[in-house]
Amino acid sequence: MPPFDVPEDDPFGPHNLPYGVFSPSGSTERRVGARLGNHVLDAGATAAALGSPHHALLAGPTLNPLLAAGRTAWSDVRRAVTSWVTDPAHRNTVEPLFHPLSEVTLHLPFEVADYVDFYASEHHARNVGQMFRPEAADSLMPNWKHLPVGYHGRAGTVVVSGTDVARPSGQRKAPADPAPVFGPSVRLDIEAEVGFVVGVPTDMGSRVALGDFREHVFGLCLLNDWSARDIQAWEYVPLGPFLAKSFATSVSAWITPLEALEHARVAPPERTHPLLPYLDDSAPGTELGGYDLRISVAVNGHVVSEPPFSAMYWTAAQQLTHMTVNGAALRTGDLYGSGTVSGPAEHQRGSLLELTWNGRDPLELPDGKRTFLEDGDVVTLSAWAPGAGGLRVGLSEVSGRIVAG
Ligand code: CA
Known about the structure:
The protein folds into 2 domains: 3-107, Fumarylacetoacetase, N-terminal domain (SH3 type barrels), CATH 2.30.30; 115-403, Fumarylacetoacetate hydrolase, domain 2. Helix content is 17%, strand content 27%. It has 9 helices and 26 strands. It has helices spanning 43-49, 64-68, 71-86, 91-94, 122-132, 213-216, 229-235, 316-324, 352-355; strands at 19-23, 31-36, 39-42, 98-100, 105-107, 115-118, 150-152, 158-160, 165-166, 169-172, 181-184, 188-189, 192-198, 217-224, 227-228, 249-251, 256-257, 265-266, 290-291, 294-299, 302-305, 335-337, 363-365, 368-370, 378-386, 392-403. Residues 117, 191, 193, 225, 337, 339-340 line the site of calcium ion. Calcium ion binds at residues 117, 191, 193, 225, 337, 339-340.
């Protein structure tokens, strides 16, 4: 079917138009594209062919120039791309500049600057607390309802969907073991998350207010924070995640602009503790900070979980505000993960750790039981969000296959 004739109810129809970076078949040149249905529009070539003033932002080889251009430019470019793929007057010029998605190579769409990962699901935090601190009076740590807990991760190992993930090796020591041993992780896990991509930077010493979230954050993607639970359990005290997570973080090849998700904005869960003013999103006039994203987690094509992003306690706006409250600067291409998305129900948990309750209750898959990941397993996160008029806005999948380390 010609790309112009994509069905109106396609989750990647003209109401969506995520951006990515691709190489056409037979080429290694990296070009900025917009996805429409199962096609990729060469956005840079289209801008050039139509004499668009936005050509420099779409010339490649990454999305960074577009990210840095700011919210007004983001809207202008989106309006232009929408007209390129919908206005019959452009059809003859634009149609030859589409490529079938199946024939292109997709790349990491932006140059990742700094990478931060949060811990924003109360359900996830409580599950982990119950598993690892069963004796504690409260499954949440005392700080959890007062600030979005996070850590700085490793930007250089963020990889695009489709990249194989080598099983990491490291030290592990179960409590009963007399000494640590070294070897491939035997408790390799996933964390289903949403990644937020910063466009507009800030200077050191400045802070981003809650209401300025959409002036700085361009869009979002799905993110899999691969996690070696055995390495993590031994190394994390007292400074937090380190080698158990830094070996690979996978992101979608397509970044969905926040502007495509206007109809998916929802209020976050009710706050049970008063917040300090800089994080208080209950004040009158504060924009809705939550997003209604329906995530699906599949192992080897079998859906094992459906985590709801709308259940996240902390919003992406609060996370951005907290991340800069000390005066730390933002850079174009900063990426921050929401934290594992887990909902209140058992089938809404975003990690195998929780789904199997630390390995106690194996999952029954068509190809056998799973506690943690085996070599050859393919994990795919996909999602959609409600759009205007009952349409769905598809979020591009993030997929990765485990290979022997
Ligand atoms: Ca995580």
